[in-house]
Specification:
Rossmann fold, alpha/beta, 22% strand, 3 domains, 7-stranded parallel sheet
């Protein structure tokens, strides 16, 4: 396995700038560099502001680069025909993850800006057309709940889709992963078997099936060197899953650290004392809680979502702020927030909010039951790992889009999150910050799933309650 070097630094430390300078240095000395970044917007900004117009070639490959033909094919051709001398090629995470082969990659340095997402899910309704796929794959039992899908004859043609069939085109991404040496694709046994048998599962629409994919570390094999940069690297899914597979990791070379902004080299956020963190509920946040009705202290029954919008709107007042919410929370619901700007659910590298000092994160980022099963049974993650990867890290990225990442900005800042556990995690990331409960005006705490507590608990139940109280006290003392 190829050694993966990682540059772990907090948001705002200048990782992108450091990587661009390193890439320019390599290319200026005759080396070839493949720089991989999250978004087209970030690629364009990096090439314009950091790489500039050096004496060596800089070539961009993405879907808006004005090139003719498929991006992956053009990138493959570029590697095949690469001449001698230094150069930088820049492409997106999506394009890189779809590449099954790079010719001559042994002479290329791979630099990945932001930690790649190593899992993926695609959902289809194949009630009438499943044979297009099912006749070209073999479901191999992985465990009692999951099939590992293996390639059969004919799958490669489906992946290439030479005649541009519209239905084949929709399946192409998943099919490419099944046939790739760098991805493993899985489906639940109950949903796959039901699809073949023409039955429905758990009340879902007949023919609905989800394909879950996992990237293999082999995607990085064979390059001259590999560096991945990202905040909280050891909290990432990539590190947690691949370290368990004994993939070799090594901290960044010392010279890369010197390229970071001096004030961030210590690895901690400054000016935490300028930050107040407000949380709405004590219970862990979820869509189930979000979508409930709630009784206000006035006796009025309202939708909890409407109440959240009211409370945060009153708190922010006339100040501008940004917010992040799940896609299923329609934009029209936020019409009363005249000074609010909605943020993308994947805001990596977006610096357009740097002039704002307030943010509200409303997103419930819990996995579906099947995705949770996939992350646990197939990828080997625990409950705490899943919450950290799916909830903590996206929220941290969102917070760091505003002025909180700028150590020179002394303006007071406010962050609103939905639950206490998230507020405490943020407090630990920003030493000196203050956590405060937001008055939601609700008469009772959010309902939780499960049986209601008995008014006359048994001795065994009382013993469990005392044990839980003991654990909670120990946890509180450890915070």
């Amino acid at each position: 396995m190829t050694l993966i070097q990682y540059l772990c630094a907090i948001c705002g430390a200048g990782k992108t700038r450091a990587l661009a300078l390193y890439a320019k240095n390599l290319a200026g000395n005759g080396e070839k560099v493949l720089l991989v970044q999250k978004t087209i917007k970030l690629i364009n900004a990096t090439v314009r502001d950091e790489i500039g117009t050096p004496r060596f070639p800089v070539t961009i490959f993405h879907c808006d680069d004005n090139g003719i033909g498929n991006v992956s094919v053009r990138l493959l051709d570029h590697f095949k025909n690469a001449g001698s001398g230094g150069e930088i090629v820049v492409t997106t995470h999506e394009t890189f993850s779809n590449m099954s082969y790079f010719e001559g990659k042994a002479i290329w340095h791979l630099i990945v800006d932001e930690i790649p997402q190593i899992d993926d899910m695609k959902c289809f309704n194949l009630s009438e057309t499943h044979s297009i796929l099912s006749e070209r794959v073999t479901p191999v039992v992985f465990n009692e709940n999951w099939y590992h899908l293996q390639e059969n004859d004919g799958l490669e043609a489906l992946a290439k889709n030479p005649n541009r069939d519209s239905l084949w085109e929709q399946l192409k991404g998943t099919v490419r992963k099944i046939s790739s040496d760098h991805w493993d694709v899985y489906a639940t046994r109950k949903s796959y078997d039901a699809l073949i048998a023409g039955e429905s599962v758990d009340g879902e629409d007949f023919g609905k099936i989800e394909f879950f994919s996992a990237m293999r570390p082999s995607i990085f094999d064979g390059f001259k060197s590999v560096i991945i940069a990202g905040a909280n690297f050891k909290n990432s899914m990539l590190y947690k899953v691949w370290a368990a597979k004994e993939v070799p990791f090594m901290r960044m070379p010392p010279f890369l650290k010197k390229l970071l902004r001096a004030e961030f080299r210590a690895g901690t956020h400054e000016n935490g004392d300028r930050l107040k963190i407000y949380y709405a509920y004590n219970s862990n946040w979820s869509k189930y809680l979000r979508d409930q009705s709630t009784a206000l202290t006035t006796g009025e029954i309202v939708e909890r979502k409407a109440n959240i919008i009211r409370v945060i709107g009153e708190m922010m007042g006339a100040e501008e702020f940004t917010f992040m919410a799940n896609k299923d929370w329609a934009g029209g619901a936020f019409a009363s927030w005249k000074k609010a700007i909605r943020m993308s659910g994947s805001p990596h590298g977006d610096n357009s909010f740097m002039g704002l000092h307030n943010i509200a994160v409303l997103s419930a980022l819990n996995p579906t039951p099947d995705r949770g099963s996939f992350l646990k049974e197939v990828l080997g993650l625990g409950n705490d790992d899943i919450r950290e990867v799916l909830y903590h890290e996206p929220v941290y990225q969102a917070l760091c889009r505003i002025s909180i990442r700028n150590p020179g900005d002394m303006t007071p800042k406010r962050v609103v999150v939905m639950d206490y556990a998230m507020a405490i995690w943020i407090r630990d990331m920003f030493p000196g910050s203050e956590v405060m409960k937001l008055d939601m005006g609700e008469g009772a705490k959010p309902e939780t799933r499960g049986r209601k507590k008995s008014e006359n608990p048994s001795p065994a139940a009382i013993k469990k309650q005392k044990q839980r109280a003991k654990w909670a006290a120990q946890a509180a003392s450890a915070i």
